[in-house]
Amino acid sequence: MYEDQTESKIFSRMMGSVPDTVDKREGSIIYDACYPTAIEIMLLYAMCDYFFKNTFGDTAERKFLIERAKERGITAYSATYAKVNLSFTPENINIPIGSRFSYDDVNYTVTEKSDGFYYAICETAGTSGNKPVGNLVAIDYIADLQSALLTEVTVPGEDEEETEAFRKRYLDSFNSQAYGGNIADYREKVNAINGVGGVKVYPAWNGGGTVKIVFMTSEFEPPAAEFVSEVQTKIDPIPNHGEGIGIAPIGHYVTIEGAKNSAITISLNLSFDNNGNFDNHKNNIYTAIDIYFKELNKGWQHTQKAEIGNFSNNGIIVRISQIESRLLDIPGITDVQHTRLNSIEENLILSVDELAVRGEVINGS
Fold first, then answer.
1. How many helices (H) and strands (E) does the chain have?
2. What is the largest CA-CA distance in the chain?
3. Which pLDDT value is given to residue 84?
4. Most confidently modeled range among 65-74, 182-191, 285-294
5. What is the CA 95 to chain-centroid distance, rounded?
6. How far, in Å, CA of 9 to CA of 16, rounded?
7. Can you tell me the distance from the alpha carbon of 220 to that of 297, in angstroms, rounded to the nearest whole number?
8. What is the rounded CA–CA span in Å between residue 106 and residue 100?
9. What value, to the nearest 5°, has the Cα angle with vertex 226 and ends 201 and 241?
10. What would you report as the CA-atom Rg of the chain, rounded to the nearest whole angstrom?
11. C-alpha closest to that of 259 among 230, 290, 301
12. Collapsing DSSP states into helix, strand and coil, what is residue 266?
């Protein structure tokens, strides 16, 4: 706003207000008095500009955005700790609660045993605890233990909420008011649960007073059955349906489900340069497709729109043009033709609760 208020302009204005009968040459008293003052005034303008920038939610820096959002009862999500499922051999071994195991650069602590399964919490907050299936190394000695395996990430860990995501959530709060179990309220409350990355809300899906909520994890994947059960208990425990014991209001019968994967078979004809072939580029091809599908899944929640007089659900649209353009960006691939998704040469629209995942990729069919 005040970028043009430089010290030279301010100094020129100050000197212009001094009568010409006064000595204004460099080195004069008035010159030496005005120039340092002009610099300080320029700094005041810069401070004013900084103040105005951080007064408004769409331009404020993170620390000031956090303060602004507090006025609407909104706070940035903190980093959370991943919860994982562990298995051990021999199967009947007793693992003490509190036992610690390492996996690459993170450690896990066993916190509970339920229905024959052991659960552990990552000691490091954030997505670093969301490890793939793999072997663990015991930090503490456990007699007769032969092997330990991380079998599943039950509740994904999340990094601290990014500034722009937080800013969008703050600005969105002015567009839809979360109140008393409306759609916006359910979206807000369920998305705030650790490990949830997207929500769709279906009001009156099975008659009056019923609500169905479908969600995906913060890794943009279908949730584990244990995680679905945990969310169900927090929102509306099954033994107390409709009683208002959880987050849901009294009289709301809420059913929680997880989004499902839809494996997509991709058939295409690829051309390569320098005698290249599919096997040479397979990993890059798979990576490009997986990145595209993850981008689609990230926006899954936003395929549901709820506005005054307008409520619609749409599935993810997988576009052939996007797949082909991304594959053509891979060095060594010169052409892509006749791309088919699930054997059909047209864009694929998934069901409303499905997430895109790569199935078989077939070249030359």
1. 8, 16
2. 101
3. 96
4. 285-294
5. 34
6. 10
7. 6
8. 11
9. 50
10. 29
11. 301
12. strand
pLDDT on residue 29: 85
* Spacing of C-alpha 48 from chain mean position: 34
CA–CA separation, 363 vs 282, rounded Å?
10
- Report in angstroms the alpha-carbon separations of 186 from 107, 162, 169, 284, 315: 34, 22, 14, 39, 20
Q: What type of residue is 208?
A: G
Q: Which amino acid is at 211?
A: V
Q: Which two tokens stand for residue 220?
A: 């943009």
Report which of 117, 321, 141, 301 is spatially closest to residue 227, judged by C-alpha positions: 117
Q: Are 23 and 30 in contact (CB under 8 A)?
A: yes
Distance between CA 39 and CA 11 in Å, rounded? 8
- Spell out the residues 6+ positions from residue 175 whose beta carbon is closer than 8 angstroms to its own: none
Contact status, residue 108 vs residue 136, Cβ threshold 8 Å: yes
**67-98 residues labelled b (16+ CB within 10 A) or e (exposed):** ebbeeeebebbebbbbbbbbbbeeeeeebeee
Which tokens in the block code for residue 305? 């729109």
Q: What is the DSSP string of 66-122?
A: HHHHHTTT--PPPP---EEEEEEESTTPPPPTT-EEEETTEEEEEEEEETTEEEEEE
315-358: pLDDT as tens digits: 999 999 999 999 999 999 999 999 999 999 999 999 999 999 99
- Long-range CB pairs of 53-58 (<8 Å, 24+ gap) are 57/167, 57/170, 57/171, 58/167, 58/171
Among residues 348, 181, 351, which one has the least CA distance to residue 257? 351
Closest CA to 188 of 165, 169, 161, 204: 169
If residue 23 lies in a helix (H) or strand (E), which one and from where to where? none
